[in-house]
């Protein structure tokens, strides 16, 4: 079973090929073939369970928990589950238009982790809260950084549940604090190459 967390354009489905990128969580309970996504690049990360043996174009790759792995969405791929069921986080992006990245970050109560524009953070395990960050001043019209200090946050922290997603912002970046691990997904727009 696959649960979509975010996609662009919004409310698109894989069947119609209308999205340029998608972030989802899938439960894998049996060995078998993976779906192909022509024209896409995938980053898969095991977020629950111990090990997934992923075969991509005939080459076997043992994937351990919290270690992202990138491969072509067009590649013939299949999975074996030597240690039992797993849950994975998938970032799929249209090649040449977007590039997706996944980083696993250990969070702390002492230092909040900001989530910036173009990012999505997902609580994988532990306890965490999210609060609106400080208001960040934009560059002045002259292209120089503004000198005024950021305003303090006035929002109350909200408790996150496992697999809750937080969407980033450049003007008031949400900040996550607590104990545990988050996946920080960055989706970058790829500029077309000029001749």
Automatic annotation (TrEMBL):
Residues 138-159 are annotated as: Disordered. Transmembrane segments: none annotated. Pfam families: HutD. SUPFAM superfamilies: RmlC-like cupins. CDD domains: cupin_HutD_N. This is HutD family protein.
């Amino acid at each position: 079973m696959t649960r979509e967390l975010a996609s662009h354009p919004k409310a698109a489905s894989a069947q119609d090929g209308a999205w340029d990128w998608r972030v989802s969580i899938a439960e894998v309970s049996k060995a078998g073939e993976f779906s192909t996504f022509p024209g896409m690049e995938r980053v898969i990360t095991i977020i629950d369970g111990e090990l997934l043996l992923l075969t991509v174009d005939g080459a076997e790759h043992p994937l351990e928990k919290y270690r992202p792995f990138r491969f072509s969405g067009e590649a013939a791929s299949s999975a074996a589950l030597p240690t039992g069921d797993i849950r994975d986080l998938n970032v799929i992006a249209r090649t040449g238009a977007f590039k997706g990245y996944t980083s696993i970050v250990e969070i702390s109560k002492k230092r909040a982790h900001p989530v910036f524009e173009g990012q999505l953070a997902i609580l994988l395990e532990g306890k965490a809260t999210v609060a609106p960050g400080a208001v960040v001043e934009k560059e002045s019209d002259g292209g120089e950084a503004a000198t005024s200090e950021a305003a303090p946050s006035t929002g109350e922290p909200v408790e996150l549940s496992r697999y809750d997603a937080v969407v980033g912002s450049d003007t008031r970046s949400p900040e996550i604090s607590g104990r545990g691990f988050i996946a920080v997904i960055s989706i970058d727009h790829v500029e077309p190459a000029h001749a």
